[in-house]
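Title: [Solved] Orn/DAP/Arg decarboxylase 2 N-terminal domain-containing protein 3D structure

Original question kept below for reference.
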Amino acid sequence: MATDSLFSYKFSDYVQGAQSQHDVAAKICKQLSLDPNMTVQALVAQHLEGLAVPPKQATIPTQTISHAQYLQRGHVVHSIVHEIVSRHLLHDANPVVDLFSIDAFVARVSSLKDAFPPSWLHALAIKANPLSGILLAAKPLGVGLETASIAEATHALNLGFAPRCVIVDSPCKTTDDLKALLQLGCYLNLDNVDEIHKVHSLLAGTVPDALLGLRINPVVGGGAIAASSTATATSKFGVPWTAATDADLIALYRDHAWLQGVHVHVGSQGCALSLLVAGAQRAVAFAKQINQALGRHQIQVVDIGGGVPTVYNGMAEEAVEFADYAALLQVSVPELFSGEFRVMTEFGRSVFAKAGITLSRVETVKRMNGQNIAVVHCGANQFLRPVYLPTTWPHVFSVFDAHGVLKTGNLVPQDIAGPLCFSGDVLSRDVHLPQIEAGDYLVMHDTGAYNMAMYSKFNSIQAPAVYAYRNHGNNGIQLSLVRTRETVAETLAFWGPTEPLSWS
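Solution (posted by the thread starter after getting help):
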């Protein structure tokens, strides 16, 4: 769409040209096949019309799986499922576990590191998977962590990550948060003008130990999933960079020389690579404009965020290789590779998701009055997005028998329900799998990101144990306990002390 190209156009190339602004505008309109006489109102209306998605296309259809595809994804996890069952690690007191492949995780992080210059800092989004053992497995690979709260930042530092390798984002920081973060010495992305004023008061003319940047909204549009798109005109994140805010942003950087970075993040799952590239282009254009306007190299850091998507199909192959994304950036935003800026990224889902699976014992199966419902020990207590938005966040499944052997029978439609006390706690409806029986084991694939991290206390169901594993082929599988299953007492402690209310 021509208006898409206009809103992501690299206007900075023409800032110092000899041509008049009217001549340049006419040239750009011709390049983009736009009517030069169109009003701004009509141009925006045309752009919004192009962004509109008919209701029937607003969700992602559930993938239809063939028997061959079912077998293929089952074989991917067969060895670890058989190992868990053989070791009798699933039982009444521990009916569900999360499993995380360190081999797959390390390979994915390594591919990220290899795709970009060694000077780039790749800060993995801690919110995608905050488990300590998993994050520590990434530490020797030379990555950092991206955090979104004072507790997450403290978590990263407690794990031994260097402050300069810890990025702190969040659209809602208190003065106390900012004071603590400034003392920790992390890289701190401020989100709004109020936060800039708070930091200004806290510093009182002193030079901060922390590095500080500002998150701007590049306003490049949204992806296929509105809830995970953060660069629309109505996004809650950052300060919009538009013609109307241009002068104010220059003034903010002029008045606060300690603002040395710019941060963008246009979204995550559902965002095309072209949208991510457009966001990076805007970040670099902004940095160059600020530095030029101020006559000094004030913006030294460009944080381009994350957003590379994954695919929830249970297979090892990713939807996007980091090398392909790097190649697009090198062509479209070569300044990122020139050494002019220190560059940071914030990938999460695309690094963690495929390394994880969840394995639950099937407690019962209901087959009556046309029903075919398997009930398992995980539902909306852990899989909030798949349960509440199943067409947007679809997962796939594999079924293993009581001995941990992949079931290979004919695929029949059945529902998979969770343990919570409400009717909507259903992981999938009409999913085609071999007939599930009580005592079987169900694998939910690709659960390594934003599932282990989103556990809910609803119904006071204990959070599951988590095992990391390495597969050494003929030499067997090694397991490491990342987290034990919560005890009932630990779960109930969340609700406060068992004492009568005390008034004062």
